[in-house]
From TrEMBL:
Keywords: Copper, Metal-binding, Plasmid, Signal. It comes from Roseobacter litoralis (strain ATCC 49566 / DSM 6996 / JCM 21268 / NBRC 15278 / OCh 149). One of its GO terms (molecular function) is electron transfer activity. This is Cupredoxin-like protein. InterPro entries: BlueCu_1, Cu-binding_ET, Cupredoxin, CusF_Ec, CusF_sf. It holds the Pfam family CusF_Ec. Residues 54-159 form the Blue (type 1) copper domain. Transmembrane segments: none annotated.
Amino acid sequence: MKKLLLSTAITIMFASGAFADVGHAKKETTDASEMIVGMPGHSEKVDRTIDVILLENDDGEMLIQSEEMNIKQGETIRFKITNEGELEHEFVLDTVERNAEHKIEMAKMDMEHDDPNRIRLDAGASGEVVWTFANAGTFEAACLIPGHYESGMHRKVAVGDQMAQADVDYTTGKIKKIDAKAGKVTIIHGPLVNLDMPAMTMVFRADEAMIAKMSEGQDIEFVADRVKGKLTVTQLK
Ligand SMILES: [Cu+2]
């Protein structure tokens, strides 16, 4: 980070005009080899492909859907990204902090970035980002188009073995109602950290096997996630 700020400062210092345009700070990520999140990967050296879908759903949420992004340090991933939504979206890999900074920049001026860690896709378009995750840590895939991040377009990218299980946080809850026919359960639950949701009563999807283990009034510990855009009970104990 320090390095990046320094190189930006130098660029500004050596800019020919005395009044360098601050808006050009977007050039800071051009040297992608300096990025904390890793570096552009080589297409011939891909270890694994992760399919990613960008879309909006009927609940007004915007989503980045994929399998859990648990990545080994040093792995090169081909993200095959399809925009199945009706709006333009993007897919940016970076640290949470840098995404937050860029989000503020984007809010001021919705500029087109052309960095190897990001791709912008029109509705119906698809593309890919090949990325080598050189460093362990928790990163983020996000869409930084104004308002989209807040509508749900961000996803944790965990790099390194110790991160693999960090996602499983059980939440306590009480089953209020079961609608087995519709595959729905109403749960009075504590905060769902992975979904950024406070404690409340909500309806979740659950499959038949899961519902078979449930009864109304039961105290449970569970994990919920978005499956195809719907809040779903994925684990129960
Ligand atoms: Cu978006």
